Backbone:
């Protein structure tokens, strides 16, 4: 159980009517750990690898929202040879009291990291799935269109759940910071002193409460020295470094300067290192090369599509040379350009993203942006299990592996697959697209380790192994059992049971599968 300090005092430039809560509540979040149930006589075993404390404690100084007074704080870091990570709410950039794009380029040019923090800073858990995904993905694509490499995310208000975590992953982020899971001055006394490296769950990295006006120099120093006693990673979260601003999420420039001076001296003993989030996680921070001049007699690129091409290495990257000029007039004001190695599509809602090879062909089979998938929201993301890759679109995802090819998942079936860990869970990769037209408006999709069936009356549920075979013997959803109404669950005597509209199926190692009809 983890405490969560949700600071609803953080407001954007358009939130004047939003009620300020000066004493935010402490929330408790219960993280449910779902164990996979066994359906075969041979037991599946998982080996938990204990995290080991890093020999050197890593401290990451993070700054949320893009407040204008953070530029002076960054100059303090620069003067001491330190760097930080700045999580940016894109719609606030350039408005009164916030950083400008020029400021962000100054910050990045000094070796700091730019991270994502959505477009408008909402509580993502209160939005629809589509709206949450748009907030996360569009914030990332906007920052990338401004020329920044964006790998890491911070949840507004530290509000997240499984669906929001899935959106963060789908949008192409490698990590996302939470709050309140590391021992803090006024909360979580039983929490650890530091996060592990690598984090147990990179989509919710553990961090102390956000720094606020009640914190002292001793509080800040204690967090570092406590982390040094165990080793690991300490992410500190700042908002305003100023006097006379938000009374809750502010510390004075004097306190910040004193702490940074102390921290810089602390690094000299070799037990503490100050790094950006990307550096702490071992991510590449090499900026994209400058755009080369257009080849003689070739096609030109520009704008967001040209920036996306350049970010991939321009003509020396996987896309090669352009083979068309930019073509406009696509759905919802979009545009695209074809290259030797793929295509780049852009729309005002999604930004510019690359499609290529098998994933591009699967998207094309559904009508490109005119089909139910809409526009891509990320580039292709590689490095998945067994050499796989995936790409997120407005209406779903495309996953590819050498063994299964490229297939689409979406809506309730995609959510059910995600609940088991996507390709890393027992279902593995999808082996078909979603197949519709089943009884009573249902649909199903086959995966390496089982199937997911959905109907309007029952929702999406997984079937596999012996219970799936027994259900199949009755004609699947067309038989007397109808659709599944639950996942597998442990029942009496070491059995496994799954409920159906017309009864249930129970399996045990000694008796196998038994069908019990209503």
Residues:
């Amino acid at each position: 159980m983890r405490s969560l300090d949700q600071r609803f005092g953080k407001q954007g430039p358009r939130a004047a009517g939003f009620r300020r809560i000066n004493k935010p509540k402490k929330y408790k979040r219960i993280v449910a750990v779902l164990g996979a149930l066994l359906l075969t006589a041979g037991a599946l075993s998982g080996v938990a690898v204990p995290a080991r404390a890093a020999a050197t404690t890593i401290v990451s100084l993070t700054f949320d929202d893009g407040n204008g007074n953070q530029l002076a704080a960054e100059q303090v870091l620069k003067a001491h040879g330190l760097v930080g990570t700045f999580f940016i709410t894109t719609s606030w950039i350039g408005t009164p009291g916030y950083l400008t794009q020029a400021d962000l380029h100054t910050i990045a040019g000094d070796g700091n990291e730019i991270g994502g923090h959505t477009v408008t800073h909402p509580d993502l858990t209160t939005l629809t799935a589509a709206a949450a995904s748009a907030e996360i993905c569009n914030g990332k694509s906007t920052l990338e269109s401004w020329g920044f490499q964006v790998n890491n995310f911070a949840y507004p208000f530290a509000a997240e759940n499984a669906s929001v975590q899935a959106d963060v992953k789908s949008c192409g982020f490698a990590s996302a910071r939470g709050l309140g899971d590391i021992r803090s001055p006024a909360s979580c006394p039983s929490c650890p002193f530091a996060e592990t490296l690598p984090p147990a769950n990179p989509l919710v990295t553990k961090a102390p409460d956000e720094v606020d006006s009640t914190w002292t120099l001793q509080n800040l120093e204690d967090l570092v020295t406590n982390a040094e006693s165990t080793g690991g990673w300490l992410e500190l979260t700042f908002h305003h470094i100023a006097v006379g601003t938000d009374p809750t999420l502010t510390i004075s420039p004097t306190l910040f300067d004193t702490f940074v001076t102390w921290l810089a001296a602390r690094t000299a003993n070799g037990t503490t290192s100050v790094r950006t989030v990307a550096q702490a996680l071992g991510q590449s921070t090499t900026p994209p090369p400058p755009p080369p001049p257009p080849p003689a007699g070739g096609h030109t690129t520009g704008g967001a599509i040209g920036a996306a091409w350049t970010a991939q290495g321009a003509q020396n990257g996987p896309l090669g040379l352009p083979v068309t000029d930019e073509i406009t007039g696509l759905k919802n004001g979009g545009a695209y350009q074809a290259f030797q190695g793929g295509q780049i599509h852009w729309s005002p809602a999604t930004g510019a993203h690359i499609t290529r090879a098998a994933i591009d062909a699967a998207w094309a089979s559904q009508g490109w942006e005119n089909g139910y998938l809409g526009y891509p929201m990320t580039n292709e993301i590689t490095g998945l299990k067994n050499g796989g890759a995936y790409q997120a679109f407005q209406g779903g995802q495309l996953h590819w592996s050498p063994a299964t090819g490229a297939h689409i998942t979406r809506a309730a079936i995609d959510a059910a697959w995600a609940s088991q860990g996507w390709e890393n869970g027992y279902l593995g990769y999808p082996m078909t697209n979603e197949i519709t037209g089943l009884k009573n408006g249902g649909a199903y999709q086959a995966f390496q380790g089982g199937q997911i069936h959905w109907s309007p009356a029952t929702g999406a549920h997984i079937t596999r192994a012996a219970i799936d075979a027994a259900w199949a013997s009755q004609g699947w959803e067309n038989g007397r059992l109808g659709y599944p109404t639950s996942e597998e669950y442990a029942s009496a005597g070491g059995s496994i049971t799954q409920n159906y509209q017309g009864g249930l199926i129970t399996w045990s190692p000694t008796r196998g599968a038994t069908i019990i009809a209503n």
Q: What stands out?
A: The first strand starts at residue 2 and ends at 5. The longest helix spans residues 129-145. The domain at 2-38+53-280 is CATH 3.20.20.370 (TIM Barrel).
